[in-house]
Amino acid sequence: MNRALFYRKFGRPEQVLTLECLNKLTIKENCIRVQMLYAPINASDLIPITGAYQHRITLPQIAGYEGIGKVIQAPKSYQQLIGKRVLPLRGEGTWQSLVDSPAEYAVPVPDYIEDKIAARAYINPVAAWLMIKQFSPKGKHILVTAAGSDCAKLLCKLAIKFAALSVTVICRSDNHAQYYNKYAIKHIKQDDKQIIEYFARQADIVFDAVGGKLAETILDHMPDSSEFISYGLLSGTFFQPKKRLPKVHWFHIRHYLKQISQHQWLKMFDDIWPILDTNDLNVANLFAFNDWQAAIKTYRQPYRNNKPLLAFG
């Protein structure tokens, strides 16, 4: 019996998600079936449920975009995966105990990566990796918002790795100061408008996941030659660029995935695994699958310094 978090209408996740038990249909050809272990809660999981992207979502849907599990069924050409830990990606929603996903996109997890880290190796690490590859930080001044997120931490770490001239991050609190001090990354307060304007004027590239007034403030003070990459709207508020320059890029993982081959897809994770340091990411906070509402409530807590994960055991 499969347990899954469905949404059959759009709205606030806590109100429209329902935990349902149902028999799993016969597995499709060229797919694997995965017994899930953990799945994280990300903004990218919750926002589609609200209806923000309803033009490309057909209801009903099972929530969740990433996680880790063990393969229990596989086609003949992928029998070597049975019993192995994988990321079952680019298939069904992952907030369910049994996930079917395309075998060719299943990402094997190296033995040295623990479950609670591997479970969140897709959304944030892949976004950070693709953005850094697309917008090279070499020899440039980098400004990053949403300092408390794993994606921001990885963006900063990768910017240093790829020879940024300087990296500055905007924080709502001091909860993550220890991490940024470790890498000699300057951190400034989100409520200090004057200092944000100063660093915006120095920035060559801005990676923003907040949007709203913060994005507008930064854009108003950036040089015309710089670039602003928007990859999220954690504030829940859209923003409108007031002038043609600096150039604004709207980053979405799905647009980039359409352009890469299966080999490039798997190779990307070979590059990502070594940068996932347990000590650098937010501490995992485990919730039994039945307690999914408490997990979402924890995710919404301001100044949170942990990462809620649904546990299917």
Automatic annotation (TrEMBL):
Keywords: NADP, Oxidoreductase. Residues 31-111 form the Alcohol dehydrogenase-like N-terminal domain. InterPro entries: ADH-like_N, GroES-like_sf, NAD(P)-bd_dom_sf. Pfam families: ADH_N (PF08240). GO terms for molecular function: NADPH binding; oxidoreductase activity, acting on NAD(P)H. Signal peptide: none annotated. It comes from the Bacteria. PANTHER family: QUINONE OXIDOREDUCTASE PIG3 (PTHR48106:SF18), QUINONE OXIDOREDUCTASE PIG3-RELATED (PTHR48106). This is Alcohol dehydrogenase. The lineage of its organism: Bacteria, Pseudomonadati, Pseudomonadota, Gammaproteobacteria, Orbales.
